Amino acid sequence: MSTTSLDKSKIKFLLLEGVHPKAIATLENAGYTNIELLKGSLDEDSLVEKLKGVHFLGIRSRTQLTERVFAAADKLIAVGCFCIGTNQVDLASARRHGVAVFNAPYSNTRSVAELVLAEAIMLARGVPEKSMKAHRGVWQKTAQNSFEVRGKTLGIVGYGSIGSQLSVLAESLGMKVMFHDVITKLPLGNAIQADSLDHLLSEADVVTLHVPETAATQNMFAAPQFAAMKPGSIFINAARGTVVEIDDLVTALKSGHLGGAAIDVFPIEPRSNDDEFVSPLRGIDNVILTPHVGGSTQEAQENIGIEVASKFVKYSDNGTTTSAVNFPEVALPEHEGCHRILHIHQNVPGVIAAINECLSDSGANIVGQYLQTFDDIGYVVVDIDKSNSELAVDKISSIDHTVRCRVLF
C-alpha cells in the first residue's frame, strides 16, 4: 500500500468507449495529464492486462467489470460510468476491493425524454410504417390509424428522473399522464399515480418503460402485460433490454394487438458498431429500432463527461465520495496544514478503535475525522497535523481488515 501522495502526473486515467472530450478537459484543468483514451470497449482478458497501474477507469455501457477484473487491478481506486446505469459493473466486487463507482444519473434525462416523446408522436401517426413502405415504392396516403397525441393517455412505468421529466413534456402537448411506480411519488403537474400496473395498462394509449435493471424488473413485460394493454396501443422501451420478453412483444405486434413499438435497448446488444445487430424485431414495419441512443446526444454526452470527471477530481483531490453508488458517501472540507489519510476497511468491530490507538501512540493530533459505512466496507478519513504523520500511516496501513490506506496530501 502506498503511504505517500502521488504527483498528479503519476495518477493514471484510462477512458474507454469514446468518452466525451469534455471529460479529458475537466481532468486536465484540474492538473491531471496522464490520460489514455480508447474509442472502443475491452474484453475481460484485455482489461486485466490494460488496468495494470491504472488508478481511475472510465467506461460506458459496453465494458463489463467483473470480480476477475477488480482482483487484477492493482492500483485502481475508482470507476466512472459515463452513463446512467451501472449494471455493467460488479458493484459488490468493486466495493470489496476498495473501488468507488460513480455515474451520471441525471445528465441525459432530457435526451431520453425527448426521444420517447418524438417516438410516441411518430408511432401515433403511423410514420414508421408509412416511411418503410415509401422506401419500397408504396404510396400510403391515408388518415386511417393516424392520431394526434393531444388528449391521449401516456402511461409511464417508473416515475424517476426520466419518467417525471417526460411527464412534464407530455402534458405540455396536451397528453394525459398516468404513472406507475413501486413507491408513492409526488406527481408533477396533473399526472396521476395508477393504483396498479394493470390499471395503467388498461387506460394508457402509449406505455413507456423507465425502470432500472433489477431482479424484480427482469422480463416484467411479457405476454400477460401486452395482453392487458389496450388494442392498438403503443409500447416504448428506453429503459433496459432485460425488462422485456422480446418474443412476446413480437407476437403482440404481429397479431395486431399493439399498434406499434419503439425499442432502444435490447437483452443482447452488439459490442461494437462493426458487429451485426440481431433481433426478431427486425423487419416489422411499425417498429422503431434505435441502437441504445436514448442518452446519446452531444449535449448529454458533454454533460456526462463533465459530471463524472468532476467526481473523479473530487475523489482524487480530497477523498469526497458523495454520489458514489457502491461506497460510503463522505463529503469533506479541506484543512490547511494537515495530512489527510484515507482508510478503507472491512466493516468489522474494532477497526476505528485500532486507528485511533495508532494515532495516539504516534502522538498525532487529530484535526478532523469522518466515518461512514456501507454494507461490508467502512471508509474513514482522518486529518492529522504533519508531525509524526508518516509513522502514523505506517501503523494504520498494517491494521487487520485494511483494504486500502493512503495519504492524500
A few lines on this structure:
By secondary structure, this protein is an alpha/beta fold. The protein has helices spanning 21-29, 44-50, 67-72, 91-96, 109-124, 127-135, 161-172, 197-203, 223-228, 246-254, 298-318, 351-362, 389-397, and strands at 13-15, 35-37, 56-59, 78-81, 100-102, 153-157, 176-180, 192-193, 206-209, 233-237, 258-263, 287-289, 338-346, 366-374, 377-385, 402-407. The chain has a seven-stranded parallel β-sheet, sandwiched between helices.
Count every helix, treating DSSP H or I runs of 4 or more residues as helices.
13
The amount of helix comes to 25-40%
Strand order of the main beta sheet, please?
8-7-6-9-10-11-12
Oligomer status: single chain
Mean pLDDT over the residues: 92
User: Mind telling me the C-alpha Rg?
Assistant: 25 Å
